[in-house]
Amino acid sequence: MILDAIALKNFGIFGGKQEAVLAPADGRKPIILFGGMNGGGKTTFLDAVQLVLYGAKARCSGRGKLGYREYLREMVHRGADPTDGAAIELRFRRAVDGEMHYYRLTRSWRETAKGIEEHVEVAQDAEFNSLLSEHWDEYIEGYLPSGIAHLFFFDAEQIKDLAEGEHAAEILGTAIHTLLGLDIVDRLDTDLIALARRKRAAVQSGEDAEKTRHAEEELARLQNLLDQAKQEQGALGNEAGRVAKDLAACEERFRQEGGELYLLRSELEAERCRFDAELARTKALLREIAAGPAPFLLVPGLLQEAEQLAGREAEARKSTVLVAALEERDSEILALLKKNKVTARDLDLIERLLERDRSNRAGAVAEPVVLNGGENLATELRHIRSTVLPGVRSAIEEKLEAIGSLQERLTRCELELARVPKEEAIASIERELTQLRRKHQEKQAELAAQEDKLRVLSRQLEDARRNFHRELGHEVETRVDREHDTRVLKHSARVRETLAKFRVAVIRKHAERLEGLVLDSFSHLLRKRTLVTGLRIDPGTFQIELRGGNGKPLPFDRLSAGERQLLATSLLWGLAKASGRPVPTIIDTPLGRLDSSHRRYLLERYFPVASHQVILLSTDEEVDEASLGRLKPHVGRSYTLIFNEEQHGTTIKPGYFWNHETTS
Prior knowledge:
6-stranded antiparallel sheet, 6-stranded mixed sheet, 14 strands, elongated
């Protein structure tokens, strides 16, 4: 299926007649890119495609609790005449039995004296087809059931619901039932109940019939209450979503005005005081180091000379003592020689030799004494140079580095404080933010209360259903007197049991393929094959169970917000591939909740291959100029939805934001 073109006439925010060609200009460029500011008509465009295809079954975002006719009345453009009404025309093509056929589907409505009058017209291969026009709902349900349309046409809110797990099981259950044809099984089960009810009613006694009738009425009453509660829940969800969007916008304005810094002001001031105190302590420690041996670091050469001089003076002192001892010894030797009557010649020779020896040894004594230190002065100076001063130098460098770091951090802190806005500049936004947060909390509380109500009603409904079947069972056992009806009732009950087993067996049989497609899609998007190595869909509850790289269960909250949204996208993508239907993909606000890295994954790995035709409805902040550069090789056409304040309507212009020329 390829969407060739769409024309909107006075639909929602689109005034007059607006048209856009949707067919890809090139098979290698499947993306059709629509740009629009918030409130410019992107979601209305998505609603238009679903509405023209499915009518009352379409999941339109703005419908809420409105009845279908009331919704159609609301979607006529404000500036248009209600009697002229609105219309949506969708031109598309699809292959049937190997042959390509072209269709023009038009859904129009207008205000009449009897209320809203709707008209559906279908042309096939340029000729009006009365059969398709009359039975279009059955035809589109046979080709692309409304139960799986959300696999191909979705927005960021649906991704959020899947990512946060609140409605994931419900969405998956509906899609899988429709994909596997189990909706037919459910209808058959309902038909069997109706058949059994008719057979029992034919043979019931008055008392039994009255009990069964009351049980059936109670069942219908509770079912009606549950349906109303679900509609109320949907409306509350829409309101909560709108409040959440307003809150997000206000939080963004608060951040841009410096609100986050304003809230952190006291922390920043405390941090500045802490840095000041730590800087003062570090400087005091540095001064203490400077009061010790640190000044010696300034005269390393002089310190080395003093060490050498102290060594020489120590040697001189030793030489002086030695010479004195030698003089005393030599006097004793000469006296002894004279006493032994050594010749004068020999005595003179020995005296000269001894005198020469003393002269040689007395050379060091001539060294002048400057330091006049102790014997250990040279050793102490050597210890200071080799051991003490390197430690002092290291300590000084450490303290100087710490001072530099503290001064830098103090400077950054003072710059942050300088950026803090004044209280009067931020007060109004802060008040608005407080009000929106309180309103959002109230809506969340209302939603929680509504969910509690739904759970209570669901339990009551289940009890009523069991009571109804019990009353029917009593009647079957006691009042059925016709053999044919008895046989029908018994076999219908067995068939229903078989259908229940068949339903679970079919889901279990196909679960592995579905799980594989979803896991492959997630791995392709993220390319972290060790993050999630296993994925299981429970066939009974449709809850998703993940396994990490270590083979152990991986809770959803262990994934980052971006990874959860990529997983949600993978669920839709995998189920869409499992459907086997070549249907275009339409995505509204595709990147709004993702950070830059995860946006890149979708831009490069999903959008170009999501389908043979991909229609993206984006703001200028989602697909900005950088993102457009990545997408451009795959973009066949681009448009911008431009809202005109004077005309109170949106027009469709070729080109995307920065270049209003058709991209092809």
